[in-house]
Every structure is written in structure tokens, then in C-alpha cells.
Amino acid sequence: MTNQRILAHFHESAETKIQSATVLAPHIAQAIDLMFSALSNGNKILVCGNGGSAADSQHFAAELVGRFERERFPLPAIALTTDTSILTAVANDYSYREIFSKQVQAFGQAGDILLAFSTSGNSGNVVAAIEAALEREMRVVAMTGKGGGAIGKMLTDADVHICVPHDRTARIQEVHLVTIHAICDGIDVALFGGDVNE
């Protein structure tokens, strides 16, 4: 029974990724173009999400500031999930809904990108961060699932919505991880061209 459950996770994950690939590829390409353009113009990427999506935020920022698969200069990305003093102060003094939006207001500038993760599309603090980003004339790349929720309804034509066509949180997060790697690879190729092994 245990082996069957384990195999079911792997098979469902693989099937979800394959089904998502064709649907999401054009949106991922748009996200790459948007981020590359912003980075080329001296702008930065702010990233936020809760729980596993907080880990995804930090993962993405680490790939840009450090490296993905090739040596290059650091690229400016900040995970808004990492400063416990800011997070706890804002949550305590204002509300948990504002833990990311206050940071977007502090660090975000016109032309910057907000990469926002919410598997449900309804995380209140991520919604608030997007509202703050749009007010500051930033562009948004939203990674969601479950139909996109509230976030899917608030994005503009200038933003990018990468909505995984699945309702299970684990599967959505697994596709988000592949998407992160595809975006990092796309940015590197846009910067340097070719493959890492060339």
C-alpha cells in the first residue's frame, strides 16, 4: 500500500507537469521577457509567498543573486519572506495582510517586477502586495493554481499569470518549481545566449 501511494505521487506529478507544459509555456515565455527587460533596465524583482511558496520565493531570489547553472554577475532579486524583524513587526503592529505590501511600498519602484506565489490565488497578504505593486507602476508575474482565485481577476494586461491547471496544492507547487527553473534558464539565455554546455 505504501509503495502504491508513493508511486501515485510520482505519476500524478509527472502527468501534471506534462499537462501544464503546453498550457503554461507561452505565459512563462512572457514572464522571462518581462523580467529580462526589467533587469536590463536596472530594475529588480521582489518575490513573495506563504509557506512552501515562501520557500519558492527564497529559492528564486537565490538563483538570481547567486547563480542558476552558469557563472554570471549577480542579478537583483529580494525575497520579502526572510526578514523576521520586519515580518513580525508589521504583523504585530498592523496586520499579517500587510507583511509583504509594506515591503513593496518600501523597496518597489516603477519598472520593478513583483513575482507573487499563491497556490490558491487568494492569499490575502499576496493580494495586498500585488495591489501595492500596481499602485507603484510595477509589473506583476503571478504564479497560482486552482483557477487563479482573486489574483487572477486583479492582474492587468501588462502582467503575467502562470496558473497551474490543477487543484492539489502539492502538484501546483511542483509545477511552480519547474517554472522557477525555466524562468532562471530563460533569463540566463537572454543574457548570454546558447546553452550552459556550449
UniProtKB/TrEMBL annotation:
Protein name, as recorded: Phosphoheptose isomerase
Annotated binding of substrate, by residue: N50, G51, G52, E63, N92, D93, S118, T119, S120, S123, Q173
Enzyme Commission code: 5.3.1.28
NCBIfam families for the chain: PRK13936.1
Ranges of residues in domain SIS: 35-197
GO molecular function annotations of the record: carbohydrate derivative binding; D-sedoheptulose 7-phosphate isomerase activity; zinc ion binding
The protein's annotated pathway: Carbohydrate biosynthesis; D-glycero-D-manno-heptose 7-phosphate biosynthesis; D-glycero-alpha-D-manno-heptose 7-phosphate and D-glycero-beta-D-manno-heptose 7-phosphate from sedoheptulose 7-phosphate: step 1/1
Enzyme class: isomerase
Similarity section: Belongs to the SIS family. GmhA subfamily.
Cofactor(s) demanded: Zn(2+)
Matching Pfam families: SIS_2 (PF13580)
Note: The reaction produces a racemic mixture of D-glycero-alpha-D-manno-heptose 7-phosphate and D-glycero-beta-D-manno-heptose 7-phosphate.
Species this protein is from: Duganella aquatilis
Gene Ontology cellular component annotations, sorted alphabetically: cytoplasm
Assembly and binders: Homotetramer.
Record's cofactor remark: Binds 1 zinc ion per subunit.
Keywords from the UniProt entry: Carbohydrate metabolism, Cytoplasm, Isomerase, Metal-binding, Zinc
Gene Ontology biological-process annotations: carbohydrate metabolic process; D-glycero-D-manno-heptose 7-phosphate biosynthetic process
Binding site residues for Zn(2+): H59, E63, Q173, H181
Subcellular location: Cytoplasm
Highest taxon in the source lineage: Bacteria
Keyword hit for Isomerase: yes
Function: Catalyzes the isomerization of sedoheptulose 7-phosphate in D-glycero-D-manno-heptose 7-phosphate.
Reactions catalysed: 2 D-sedoheptulose 7-phosphate = D-glycero-alpha-D-manno-heptose 7-phosphate + D-glycero-beta-D-manno-heptose 7-phosphate
